[in-house]
Amino acid sequence: MEYDLENYDIEGYPGSVDIVDTPKTLNGGFRQCRSMMPFDNLDRKLKDFRWDVYGGTPESRTAEKMANAFVSGYGRFRKEGKGYFIYSGTKGCGKTLLSCCLANEIMETQDVSVKFISVLDYLELTKKDYKTMEEKADVERIRQAGILILDDIGVELKREWVNTALYSLINHRHSNRMVTLITSNSPLERLGIDDRVKDRINAMCIMLHLPEVPIRSIKARQENEKFLQSVIRNGECPPGGSRPGTS
Question: Is 81 left (phi over 0), alpha (psi -120 to 50) or beta?
Fold first, then answer.
């Protein structure tokens, strides 16, 4: 995967300009566009996160309090370099969405750079022996992000070069007290990665467990049902079919 994160064409200028820092005068929306978040999550905030789908369990209430604490107490999180390790064994339970909501809340009021990248995409960027200058710059922006969302760290990452790349990234952010939000389908102790990486993650991230509820599947089913009911109410039918009462 190739990234063109910071290059902008300027009229009358022969080439492009590499914009490194976001000026304080720019709003959070511009920073969000540069964050590499999934498009559907670019403008999501905590108000958009449906905690009620978890059924109001003690676990979900604890997770909600932790999410709110990150926003209200971000100054302390930033000072100590603390983030969250957001995990759940159920795919589509809201881990990625929650991490984006948290980052968007901070970008709304703080002058902070955010980068989002999946672990596999980051490894793809770093595994080449001869990277272009642009690729090297992309990797450095990710390493130096004020808030880094490292999405979907998995159990299959066992090769030595993978552990080396991950350790370099995680250790750098731990040593420099940089806020990192990590999502995973597995608890930290079950990840098939080097113990040094797990130790650093454990030191820099607070564990946040989301309930085992497949929000994405539930939402898709609800949207499909809503669509079908709309079609039925309007008396529509598939191409080649007939409307009710006309056959």
Answer: left
61-64: Cβ within 8 A, 24+ apart: 63/208, 63/209, 63/210, 63/211
Whether 74 contacts 106, CB under 8 Å: yes
Asked if residues 180 and 148 have their Cβ atoms less than 8 Å apart, the reply is yes
The per-residue pLDDT for range 64-77, each reduced to its tens digit, is 999 999 999 999 99
CA angle (211, 46, 40) in 5-degree steps: 90
Q: Distance between CA atoms of 14 and 178, rounded to whole angstroms?
A: 36
pTM of the model: 0.76
